[in-house]
C-alpha cells in the first residue's frame, strides 16, 4: 500500500509515552519510520493538560502502513477490543517480530500451530497494544498490518451487522470472506468466527468472541478518516454518528453505534497543527477545541485564510 494515499489511519492513545512507543516499534520492524511529529501549543492547556511544546502526536509507518500515536493522558487504556494482525510469509521474520514485541509484554495465546495457521500467536506488548501474528503461505491481504475489531460483551454477535454498516458507509468497500461458528459452540453459534473486509481499499478484520469476556471499545484506539473537503467531512460524520453516542462527539471525534471511536478530520491536520507561527497554531487549537464536527470555514478563519 502507498501509505500517502491511506484514507483511514489507526490512532493510538498513549499517556505521555507515545514517542517512546514509536521508537520501540521502529526498532522492532525493519521497514519502519517516523513521518512527522506535532507538538502541543499553549492554547487549550486547561483541557489537554500537556506542557507547551511537548510532543502531541507521532505519525509513523510500519510495513508501509501509517498509524498515529497521541500523548493524550491517562484516561484510556488499551485492551483486546482492537488489535493488529501481522501477516507474514517468512517464518523467520515472523518469529523475530514476535520475540521483539513480546519483550516486556505478555502472551495472550502462545506462538504455536493452530487449526487456522501453521504458526500463530496473540500478545500484548509492553505498552498494552495487542498484536496477532500469523504465518500465511498464500497471502490473504496486500497489507502486512491489518486492524482487527473484536466484538465482546454486549457487542458479542454484532460483527456481521458492523461489517455491513461499515461497508455501506465507506466507498470502495466489499467483504472478502466470512467464517461463522458452528453448533459445536452454542455460545457463538452462527456468529462471526473470522471475517475480512475492505474499506477504501484497506483491509480490516472482525470477529465475535467465542466465549464470555468483555473488552469494551474506547478512545484508546480510534480510526481517523482523512477527508478532502467539507462535503466529505459532513458525509462521514453524519453516517458514522447515526445511532452513536452524542456525548462522545467533540473535536472531530465520535463513537459509532457499536462504540468504536472514529475521527473525521481534514487531510493534512499534522501540517495544520505544526504551523511554525505560534499565534496561528494557538488560534487553530482554540478553534479545534470548540467544535464537534470539523468546520473548514472556521478552521481557515482561525488560520487567517479567507
User: How are the strands of the biggest sheet laid out side by side?
Assistant: 6-7-8-5-9-12-11-10
| Major sheet | 8 strands, mixed
* Number of discrete domains: 2
State the CATH topology of the largest domain. Answer: 2,3-Dihydroxybiphenyl 1,2-Dioxygenase, domain 1
Mean pLDDT rating = 93
CA distance, first residue to last residue = 36 Å
CATH architecture descriptor of the largest domain: Roll
CA-based shape:
globular
Could you describe the 3D structure shown?
The chain is of the alpha+beta class. It is 24% helix and 34% strand. Helix 7 packs antiparallel against helix 8 (296-302). The longest helix is centred in the first third of the chain and has 12 residues, at 91-102. It starts with 7 loop residues before the first strand and ends with a helix. The mean pLDDT is 93.
Could you give a short description of this structure?
With about 300 residues, the protein is of the alpha+beta class. The protein has helices at about 20-30, 45-50, 90-100, 160-170, 230-240, 270-275, 280-290, 295-300, and strands at about 10-15, 30-40, 55-60, 65-70, 80-90, 105-115, 115-125, 130-135, 145-150, 175-180, 190-200, 200-210, 220-225, 255, 260-265. The two termini are about 35 Å apart.
